[in-house]
Amino acid sequence: MKLLIQGAGYIGEVHLKSIVTYKLCEVALCEMNEARLQEVAARYHVTETYTSLDEALQHPFDGVIICTPNFAHKGDMEKCINAGLNVMLEKPMAESLESAEEMYKLCSESGRFAFVAYCLRFASPYQRIKKMIEEGKLGKVFSIRAAVAGKKAISDAKTNYRTVRKLGGGVISDFSHEIDYSLWFAASPVVRVKCIGNQAVHKDWDVLDTAELLIQCENDIILSVHMDFLQPYFGRTIEIYGTKGAIRWRDNECIKFYDMEKDQWEDMDSAINWDHVYRDEVIHYLDCLQNKKRPLIDEKSGYETFKVIAACTKSAEENIFD
Ligand SMILES: NC(=O)c1ccc[n+]([C@@H]2O[C@H](COP(=O)([O-])OP(=O)(O)OC[C@H]3O[C@@H](n4cnc5c(N)ncnc54)[C@H](O)[C@@H]3O)[C@@H](O)[C@H]2O)c1
After folding, report:
1. Alpha helix locations (H) across 113-226?
2. pTM of the model
């Protein structure tokens, strides 16, 4: 199998490194910045390189990993789907709800899939928590609380896709992993959201740098998510409460599980091997391509997550005290 990587920035290089290190498949690289293309291609001994996606798509590939900034996802995905490819697409799906909706429709109409790369689903602690919920270890889950925080050292905030609204920026879209995996854990459609957000420090940005999301699911689980771009350390925490047990996890510690029957807390190993996360994500994509399977996170799932991003952003902007 042969994949094309579109965009050789930070995450494009992560996927390339994984493909080359674990010899997952053949790979070619496309990057509009010629100097960056040559630098990354040389580092991983990639011989097939392109500076334009149109040119690259004249050649045969089994799939493409789209690693360009949020605002370029829709255009790149359209080109790849129209070339007959199923795509792996970096998160979030797009820069706007309108784009995400059009992308979802294009997949449905063309019969192609978009695998939206919310990589935490391939990390063992998240998979372990999901399994514990499914096995009923927590009884009926009624509350999922997640937090993600970390200072973004962004020198080009006026032009960076993370910090400019029209490019798809803002803390809610950049940290939408939390929405994706919380909804995966809850396994139920969203019925309403509320959000309070702030430009607590970055008054000159046109996006939120902090947000508190409340999401209610049809099965009565309430998700509560804190996000900020401000804290000096980067970290994630999860708390899940059910009628028979609870989980508490801070990402550099072990998972703690409270078992009501035993009335005790158990520690569970939960180290993340990031090389394996990215490796397993691409292996999943290759498996879907080779064996005509649907991806774990398809365009519908990516679109549902984007609807929550958009609804929370809208909710944060509506202040009844205005
Ligand atoms: N899954 C994860 O954990 C994770 C981590 C980081 C980034 N991401 C996502 O990956 C995507 C890329 O993020 P990044 O941090 O690698 O970005 P980046 O800025 O480091 O890299 C983007 C690359 O795309 C190239 N590019 C191609 N077409 C472009 C266009 N039309 N406009 C601008 N640049 C273009 C740029 O030259 C650049 O090399 C984003 O959607 C981001 O949210 C995901």
Report:
1. 124-134, 171-174, 177-186
2. 0.96
225, 315 contact by CB (below 8 A): no
Q: Whose CA is nearest to atom 19 of ligand 1?
A: 9
Using the predicted structure, report yes or no on whether residue 320 has a pLDDT greater than 70. Answer: no
Residue 10 alpha carbon to ligand 1 centre in Å = 7
- CATH number of this structure's domain 124-271, picked from the four choices 3.40.50.880, 3.30.1330.10, 3.40.190.10, 3.30.360.10: 3.30.360.10
Q: Which residues line ligand 1 (CB under 6 A)?
A: 7-12, 31-33, 36, 67-70, 72, 90-91, 117, 119
Strands (E), 155-209: 190-198
What number does the ligand 1 atom closest to the CA of 119 have?
A: 1
What value does the mean pLDDT take over residues 203-227?
A: 96
d(CA 245, CA 140) in angstroms, rounded, equals 9
Substitution candidate for ligand 1 out of 4, 14, 29, 32 with most atoms within 8 A of CB: 32
pLDDT of residue 152: 65
Answer whether residue 322 shows pLDDT above 70: no
> If you search the block for the tokens 């909710």, which residue do you land on?
315
**Strand ranges in 97-185 using DSSP code E only, listed in sequence order:** 114-117, 141-149
The CATH number of domain 2-119+280-296, selected from 1.10.287.110, 3.40.50.720, 3.40.630.30, 3.40.50.2000: 3.40.50.720
Please write the tens of the pLDDT for every residue from 273-293: 999 999 999 999 999 999 999
Q: Whose CA is nearest to atom 21 of ligand 1?
A: 9
The atom number, within ligand 1, closest to the CA of 30 reads: 27
Domain boundaries, the chain: 2-119+280-296, 124-271
